[in-house]
């Protein structure tokens, strides 16, 4: 439960308006720090919900598929260039961001990850790697501004951020493939 | 796989579809810029009452162009990137407008959002780069920053100053009709397409008047 408390604390910290404002003022920090931190907050809070509503997770997220699907859909939604702009200009979208990332991504991610099989994990990893490369190239190469609230240079920075993330995942996958798993299981 | 899980998958998919539908105005706008243009064309805002000061130091409001269409662009003279392309493309449209219409049925107006630096003298120099005559294609600034801001806001022009005295901004051709209402927002990269559309509007109007 200690974890859940840390998660809640992190969530509340991110909610403080000056903190939120600071993180959102730089595009790459908005997307690659604030958003993942919100997911992590939810991830940490997950045990609380799992203990509180064991039946809910057992029944409705039996094999982890609905949960991981929800995670993918909500995460994809936040990758649309427009949603990031809307989060800055439309209050309800901003509120949805603070709700959806911890509770519709973080919590189900933790619940699902243990339940889903290796194949699904592979699909998720490879899918997101391709997506991150794609988004990275999109943000770097597209000559027009995709987000109205940020400078073009920030957009290019974000693009490289995506590519870096994708490379990191590839390194991880590489390591995963060539690791001797029997030593750890 | 139990019954609940299947139901949950259905609910999640439905939720996702709704979310994407709402977030993109029915799959029409994936960037805020498209959403902005779609909104503007639906809203049709009227041009607010501002005072221009043009490259010949004349002062007037939008009423100066009453009874004429006005093609408005937003620029700043020290711009080294997008505005040049925008104004080059404006020049291409100007070339495609029949001489009969020019100045009588339609006027071109480039509005500077950098009034501190873009004095009439600077604008006068700037207009010569694009062969603008200063009459049928005018360049003007709006000195009152508050009024300028309200115009930019109304037309969804986003201008973000950076650390080097430049601005990041969006661009488009804004077509104002004879009553001062915004009727079209056209892609500034497709000047031929925009010119065709404008000439068509002017032609229909001219035929109607016969």
From TrEMBL, chain A:
Transmembrane segments: 61-80, 123-140, 160-178
Record-given protein name: Cytochrome c oxidase caa3 assembly factor (Caa3_CtaG)
Entry superkingdom: Bacteria
Record's keyword annotation contains Transmembrane: yes
Native source organism of the sequence: Filibacter tadaridae
Keywords for the protein's UniProt record, in alphabetical order: Membrane, Transmembrane, Transmembrane helix
From TrEMBL, chain B:
Domain Thioredoxin: 41-207
Amino-acid positions noted as binding Cu cation in the UniProt annotation, renumbered to this chain: 79, 83, 169
Pfam families from the UniProt entry: SCO1-SenC
Superkingdom classification of source: Bacteria
Sorted UniProt keywords: Copper, Disulfide bond, Metal-binding
A molecular function GO annotation: metal ion binding
Disulphide connectivity of cysteines: 79-83
Keyword Ribosomal protein attached: no
Entry keyword Nucleotide-binding: no
Family of the protein in this entry: Belongs to the SCO1/2 family.
Protein name: Thioredoxin domain-containing protein
């Amino acid at each position: 439960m200690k974890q859940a408390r840390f998660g809640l604390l992190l969530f509340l910290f991110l909610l403080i308006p000056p903190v939120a404002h600071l993180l959102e003022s730089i595009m790459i920090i908005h997307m690659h720090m604030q958003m993942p931190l919100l997911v992590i907050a939810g991830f940490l809070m997950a045990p609380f919900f799992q203990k509180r509503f064991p039946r809910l997770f057992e029944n409705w997220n039996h094999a982890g598929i609905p949960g991981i699907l929800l995670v993918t859909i909500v995460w994809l939604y936040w990758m649309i260039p427009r949603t990031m702009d809307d989060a800055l200009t439309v209050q309800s979208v901003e509120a949805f961001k603070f709700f959806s990332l911890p509770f519709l991504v973080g919590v189900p991610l933790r619940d699902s990850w243990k339940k889903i099989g290796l194949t699904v994990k592979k699909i998720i990893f490879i899918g997101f790697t391709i997506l991150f490369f794609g988004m990275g190239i999109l943000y770097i190469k597209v000559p027009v501004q995709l987000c109205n609230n940020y400078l073009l240079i920030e957009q290019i920075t974000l693009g490289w951020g995506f590519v870096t993330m994708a490379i990191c995942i590839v390194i991880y996958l590489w390591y995963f493939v060539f690791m001797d798993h029997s030593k750890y299981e | 796989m139990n019954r609940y899980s299947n139901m949950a998958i259905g609910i999640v998919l439905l939720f996702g579809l709704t979310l994407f539908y709402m977030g993109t105005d029915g799959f029409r706008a994936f960037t805020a810029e498209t959403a902005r243009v779609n909104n503007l064309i639906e809203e049709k805002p009227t041009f607010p009452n501002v005072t221009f000061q043009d490259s010949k130091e004349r002062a007037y409001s939008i009423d100066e162009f009453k009874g004429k269409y006005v093609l408005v662009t937003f620029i700043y003279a020290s711009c080294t990137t997008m505005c040049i392309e925008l104004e080059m493309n404006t020049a291409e449209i100007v070339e495609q407008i029949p001489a009969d219409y020019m100045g009588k049925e339609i006027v071109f107006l480039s509005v500077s959002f950098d009034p501190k630096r873009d004095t009439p003298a600077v604008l006068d120099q700037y207009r010569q780069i694009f062969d603008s005559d200063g009459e049928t294609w005018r360049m003007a600034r709006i000195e009152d920053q508050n009024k300028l801001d309200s115009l930019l806001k109304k037309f969804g022009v986003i201008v973000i100053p950076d650390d080097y005295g430049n601005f990041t901004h969006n661009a488009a051709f804004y077509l104002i009709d004879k009553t001062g209402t915004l009727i079209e927002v056209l892609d500034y990269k497709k000047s031929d397409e925009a010119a065709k559309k404008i000439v068509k509007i002017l032609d229909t109007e001219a035929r109607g008047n016969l």
